[in-house]
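[job 4471] stage=fold_predict status=RUNNING
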Amino acid sequence: MGAEADPGQGLQLPILELSKECLVPKQGRSEEWRAMSTKVREACESHGCFLLLVQEEMLPMRLREDMVTAMKELFGLPEETKLRHTSPRAYQSYQGKCPIIPLNESFGIDNACQPDAAVSFTNLMWPQGNSSFCETMKSMSAKMMELIFIILEMLLDSFGVGKHYTSHVENTTGVMRFMKYNIPPSNGSDSSSAAVGLLPHTDKSTLTVLCQNEVQGLEILTKEGRWVQVPVPERTVVVLVGDALKAWSNGRLHAVTHRVMMSQGIKEERYSFAVFGWPKDEFIIEVPNELIDREHPLLYRPFNFFEYFTYFTANIRDDALEVYAGV
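[job 4471] inference complete, writing structure tokens
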């Protein structure tokens, strides 16, 4: 994990575009749907992530811009106000001024797609109300969750296990995270040096959809053990595979290790927001028989997702999934 990112080089991840056809109900999927499903699966197998260009009506650029503007207002609140947001769940409370990642501030909102989640969070931060923030958060979380389900359906269809899709939807909730990365203090070195914004990790989710402002910083660890920068074009979002889907797919899909590095030369803060498709506490991750064969022997025993996440938070390590659930 200590390797430096390739200087001045970025990884050209697949950029896939969801057409209008991909947004219609599932009956009578076309050749275009099946072809796109194959591309999505191949990207998740090879890289564990890809860039997604979404139709404007699915995720309007104006809505993304409004979300970033709303986040600036949120993170601009007094520290004592932000600290009101607490949760018994790991990584869901407001986090800031952490000595390990001093540039990072974040909020995690559990069950973010529930009708009252945006209202409750907004009223906590703004007791006097803030309807603009509330409606923006509500719309954005719903649209990003819809994207997660579309991508999930494509993956399952491509593997020929689409019959499991309904069970996944019924057992998935959404966690939303708002993240701010402050400008790193100058250390007198050249602008090519960088400071850690977010430590290397894999997401624990099924799938993650990530949006950001124009400030770059995302890096992924390739399967060859090399850190590479991921330039994210303005109108795209990032889709990442998490541990839950890696295990369920019997390791066929790659949960990519990623981090955020903040260049010394940047002039403004980085803002990003993500929705994580999060298995419900009682959900059992179990590899379907269709994904086990001679070439793909069983890699993970059935396990309760909440118990795995509890294990991870108590034993933070890169190989937590293999140690906890590996056969």
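[job 4471] summary: The longest strand covers residues 172-181.
[job 4471] exit 0
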